[in-house]
Amino acid sequence: VLILGIETSCDETAASVVLRDESGRGIIRSNVVRSQLDEHAAFGGVVPELAARAHVEWLDHIIAQAVDEAGIALADLDAVAATAGPGLIGGVLVGLTTGKALAAALDKPLVAVNHLEGHALTARLTDHVQFPYLMLLVSGGHSQFVLVRGVGEYERWGGTIDDALGEAFDKVAKLLSLGHPGGPAVERAAKAGDPRRFKFPRPLLREARLDFSFSGLKTAVRLQAEALAPLDEQDVNDIAASFQASVTEIVATRSRQALQRFRAELPEAAPQLVVAGGVAANRSIAAALAVVAAETGARLVVPPVALCTDNGAMVAWAGAERLALGAADRLDVAARPRWPLDAPGMKVDDHAA
Ligand code: ATP
Ligand code: MG
Ligand code: FE
Domain named Gcp-like: which ranges (predicted)? Predict the structure, then answer.
């Protein structure tokens, strides 16, 4: 099937055409993403109302471009998938309503996709990963371990109890005046810094549960920055490097524990760790995960960064996987600002077309 995917849940306006063949392999025919960096730059974070307006302004053009780059006409589509949540509700409504209108006009099925399911299934598009596997999702809005047993079958094993990891990078960048988005800027500064100059805390790390907490770490970084003010360039670099060392150790330790649990609970399965979300772009974290995977005998899958961050192809693919199992959604399906992956109703059977 040829399916259009629409993503508008945060600050990316994105559309993609994906072809899923009978053998279950996916081919990305187009993948157009417009990031709203300029709209939100002055505010140091995403402003929901501005995001929704920008989606309204751009989505039609992005869809037209995606269809055009795929070398097809709208009428060639077999289905339409759109993110129905979780996310900023104004933006979700723009994308979902557009998806509904297209599906109705084309008389083709609509799949209302959980954005997190898009992240969770991307590795099957890029790397043909087989179920089950463990996903570590680390983005601007989410940080969690999810056991992916199958399409629509997810178990949340742990996650952040306060800030998301990408959010922590963004906040540290802001207080070091490194700009937005913060992740790449902090990583750049950290390269020139001394990761041992400051010993920042590793919150929760002594506890056995698979949870994260980053807000205390962020406060420790702020207090250190205030104590040193005014900061020179070396101070900024050293703080960035020490912060990155701290979160790298946290993520690596938790991932080791999660893979040990995977081995214990699924002794028959080959252990696999799939990383998703924008923070997957971080070289320090990715390198540490590679070490953990090697130690625990697990396969590590890190899809290309453009498919780890928010995009339309992941939505199209999740839609195609659901549709292949007979799931579709009614045109009155609701947008959901909050929608955990293990919420009731994720199972494909609940959506039989
Ligand atoms: P959601 O959480 O809804 O998936 P998002 O747009 O916030 O959406 P992504 O687009 O997946 O998340 O990723 C953006 C986040 O990734 C930002 O917080 C950004 O700072 C972080 N990030 C990007 N590159 C890096 C990097 N090299 N190192 C650390 N963090 C990074
Ligand atoms: Mg984003
Ligand atoms: Fe996302």
Answer: 28-317
The 10s digit of each residue's pLDDT in 208-260 is 899 999 999 999 999 999 999 999 999 999 999 999 999 999 999 999 999 99
Q: Rounded to the nearest whole angstrom, what is the distance from the C-alpha of residue 11 to the centroid of ligand 2?
A: 5
ipTM higher than the 0.95 cut: yes
Ligand 1 centre to CA of 1 (Å) is 30
Task: Give the pocket of ligand 1 (CB within 6 Å).
Answer: 9-11, 87, 139-142, 166-167, 169-170, 181-184, 187, 277-279, 281-282, 309-310
In whole angstroms, what is the distance from residue 351 CA to residue 353 CA? Answer: 6
pLDDT at 37: 85
Distance 113 CA to ligand 3 centre (A): 12
**Strands, E, within the chain: which ranges?**
2-7, 12-20, 26-35, 79-85, 110-114, 133-138, 143-150, 153-159, 272-276, 299-301
